[in-house]
Write a structure and sequence with these properties.
The protein contains six helices and three strands. It is mostly helical. A three-stranded antiparallel beta sheet has the order 1-3-2. The longest helix has 28 residues. The radius of gyration is 15 Å and the shape is globular. InterPro entries: DNA-bd_dom_put_sf, MerR-type_HTH_dom, MerR_fam. Keywords: DNA-binding. One of its GO terms (molecular function) is DNA-binding transcription factor activity.
């Protein structure tokens, strides 16, 4: 879903298991209130809620948010259109998520290799 040309503007996803809403906001360049709204609009987006209703997002949630962001902001879809696109192409989206995850891992490994060479 994310166009390769847009990957450069988003920060790399750290190798953590859970992310707070503030961290996800920074990683996806979307404000926290928008993330909370998207949770209501997109059934695929279900962060874990713990004490005090604090949200904890996993890596696949961050990738899904980046896909939603790309559909809405870069490709010009409406909320309804993006929801339909995501629900209609779930098998394709899974494949896209894996490809995005692999690209992200490659970038992180290349960065690590650069640090080790120094």
């Amino acid at each position: 879903m994310l166009e390769p040309s847009h990957n450069d503007e988003l920060p790399a996803i750290p190798g953590k298991r859970y992310f707070t809403i503030g961290e996800v906001s920074d990683l996806c360049l979307v404000k926290p209130h928008v993330l909370r709204y998207w949770e209501q609009e997109f059934p695929q987006l279900k962060p874990v809620k713990r004490r005090g209703n604090r949200r904890y997002y996993q890596r696949q949630d961050v990738i899904m948010i980046r896909q939603i962001r790309s559909l809405l902001y870069d490709q010009g879809y409406t909320i309804g259109g993006a929801r339909q696109r995501l629900s209609g192409d779930e098998a394709k989206d899974d494949e896209t998520q894996y490809k995005q995850l692999i690209r992200q891992m490659i970038v992180e490994l290349e960065d690590l290799l650069k640090e080790l060479k120094v």
